[in-house]
DNA sequence: AGTGGCATGTTTAACGTTAAACAAGCGTGG
DNA sequence: CCACGCTTGTTTAACGTTAAACATGCCACT
């Protein structure tokens, strides 16, 4: 039976002072004489008092010194993704400077009954590429705390955004300029997607904002080249090497004439490349494959294929989001753009198959 | 001017019921008639009430549904380390299953005045390879919350431990068996270390527990081989490729006859190898280098050197720690061991230089 | 008819803290 | 000598919630 913990009140009564003075000894040293303060701290030490109860303080002050981060996907997935990890690193670097705690909030998919309330004790949220429709995210938004959304469109909220559309236009334009006409797109999940294959001229309005923007960028490129998007396939798959591989396999089966695969992440691209090579298709000889993120580990191996991709600064994205949340005060939601860079690597080349069937 | 937020109380008075009933509508649906519950929820929705205030609930119930994780190092550093990331992934996988939030707590190094109180609102702690002496960690321990320590020795606390000592003995034994007599050790920081070079027969009792155990394992191997540890150098350096490289450079300058470098992490080993090669020393031809962790990315590149290392299951380590904290109830602190495996790769080989000077 | 039990709701009293307003004492300057 | 301000501390009330005990009505069972 653990002894009851000491509180400001118990210490105060023990010492014959008021709880306020004990509180001040911790929070407002200037409001208390040095002698009293030292007496309080000394006594507190003897009863293993480790400072004011954080929950009570938070209730009283309305602040708790922590920010919450929400991902679309499972948390344990985020920790496998170079982009998400780097993004978190950016956030955490600011948290360290500010002494703020960082709360990772898993989406409630397993316990639907818990979806009705979001129990995180935080001063604000960073929402990474949220699906508007997910209940947990809806709750986060509805709570009305300061919120920064990342790669998302929300006029009333502060946001940090990469120019996905323009970048993807560059990628698709690059492939079209190389003569590719039989392209397909491999995307990570657009919403609660189940891996269907659809056409590029479908309506993507309700989708994940990142997917929406990148799809739009692809269309821009096709439009600029005067090529119809009808019949261009878009395959949705989990964002992993495995997912990329399976998607490539399905697309190549459905449309063997493909000469280029536009992947919405490097992981998907790596998987797609592996699949192509397993089928005896050389990359970029037979099929060009592009990625997105540009976060391959620094120690580049000599023999490895350098991806044609878009390098985005996920660290800076995280930093900016956290800086806005923890430091910005002022009028109107901030909108910050993060520079990205189109990088031509060795995974794309001139189309070799006869253009179109 | 944001309108004041609705509370259980305000909703109750609005609806002519008691706050308890509103609370029950959220927490104990069985204690409230279906009709009333629906009336409450419906009204709550119209006033943008997103469930009971988490801080108040936490104060009242004494629980908050979150666990805190503390690292030795900067948080933003942990996000660059494959071991730490995988460890976090293990923790987060359990948090997801349990619907618990995960609070990453930066060590307070920048704001010394904040060191006196730890403001995290959590139900328990996971301490990853803690330095006993760091103030933040001392506070975490002193708060008396349920705590699981990882790779640390604390009889009164639950723990999850890799058998560092035995594994390191295997590594050093392997090198000694290959004929190496001029070994040096490269370790990540032992405490508040500043990068000195010391002898292996120094006293490491007060150091980081992991370092302490691994050093002991090295000594075991030397003892078993009947070789003196006097004069065997131990170099401390930040745990990064850069750190490994610098340490290797310093050690080779101080003792050019070295034929083997025992590194306490794969990152250090990678850096050391790069440095050796930059100096024209072939690995493992001229110098053998060993690592620790075995977490190299799965997509192994053809030309790359496979490290001789110890593969430890960081994911499982994280999972077990979180499971103990969130699920274990019972008598006495649990002690869980995590299996590791000594892996002979291509970075170690027979010593070629004449044994000893 | 009386008793027990269940369903539904209320009353009461904290949980531990801190903001704001107030009081007492003491030195200082005009 | 008095008004003023500073230092040090106290009083009061509230932050928003929920556990525990209590009240009430209704039905069922004996």
From TrEMBL, chains A, B:
Gene3D superfamilies found in the cross-reference section: 3.40.50.2300, lambda repressor-like DNA-binding domains
Molecular function per GO: DNA binding
DNA-binding recorded as keyword: yes
Record bears the keyword DNA-binding: yes
InterPro entries: HTH_LacI, LacI/GalR-like_sensor, Lambda_DNA-bd_dom_sf, Peripla_BP_I
Record keywords, A-Z: DNA-binding, Transcription, Transcription regulation
Residues annotated as domain HTH lacI-type: 6-61
Stored PANTHER family: LACI-RELATED TRANSCRIPTIONAL REPRESSOR, TRANSCRIPTIONAL REGULATORY PROTEIN
Protein name: LacI family DNA-binding transcriptional regulator
Organism: Sphingomonas psychrotolerans
């Amino acid at each position: 039976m653990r002894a009851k913990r000491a509180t400001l009140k118990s210490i105060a009564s023990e010492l014959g002072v008021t709880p306020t003075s004990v509180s001040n000894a911790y929070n407002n040293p200037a409001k208390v004489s040095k002698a009293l303060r030292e007496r309080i701290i000394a006594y507190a030490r003897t009863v293993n008092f480790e400072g004011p109860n954080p929950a009570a303080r938070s209730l009283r002050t309305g602040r708790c010194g922590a920010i919450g981060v929400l991902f679309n996907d499972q948390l344990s997935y985020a920790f496998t993704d170079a982009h998400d990890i780097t993004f978190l690193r950016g956030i955490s670097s600011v948290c360290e400077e500010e002494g703020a705690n960082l709360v990772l909030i898993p989406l409630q998919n397993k316990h639907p009954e818990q979806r009705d309330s979001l129990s995180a004790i935080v001063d604000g949220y960073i929402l990474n590429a949220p699906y508007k429709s997910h209940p947990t995210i809806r709750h986060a938004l509805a709570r009305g705390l300061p919120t920064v959304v990342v790669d998302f469109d929300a006029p009333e909220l502060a946001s940090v955004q990469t120019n996905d559309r323009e970048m993807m236009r560059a990628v698709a334009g690059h492939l079209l300029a190389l003569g590719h006409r039989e392209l397909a797109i491999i995307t990570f999940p657009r919403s609660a997607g189940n891996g269907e294959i659809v056409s590029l001229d479908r309506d993507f309005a309700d989708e994940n904002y990142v997917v929406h923007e990148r799809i739009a960028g692809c269309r821009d490129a096709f439009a600029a080249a005067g090529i119809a998007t009808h019949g261009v396939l878009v395959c949705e798959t989990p964002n992993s090497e495995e997912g990329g591989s399976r998607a490539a396999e399905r697309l190549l089966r459905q449309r063997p004439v493909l000469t280029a695969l536009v992947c919405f992440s490097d992981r998907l691209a790596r998987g797609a490349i592996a699949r192509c090579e397993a089928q005896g298709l050389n990359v970029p000889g037979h099929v060009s494959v592009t990625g997105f993120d540009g976060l391959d580990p620094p120690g580049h191996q000599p023999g490895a294929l350098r991806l044609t991709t878009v390098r985005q600064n996920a660290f800076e994205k995280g930093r900016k989001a956290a800086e806005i949340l923890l430091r910005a005060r002022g009028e109107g939601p901030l909108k910050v753009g993060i520079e990205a860079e189109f990088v031509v690597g060795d995974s794309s080349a001139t189309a070799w198959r006869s253009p179109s069937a």
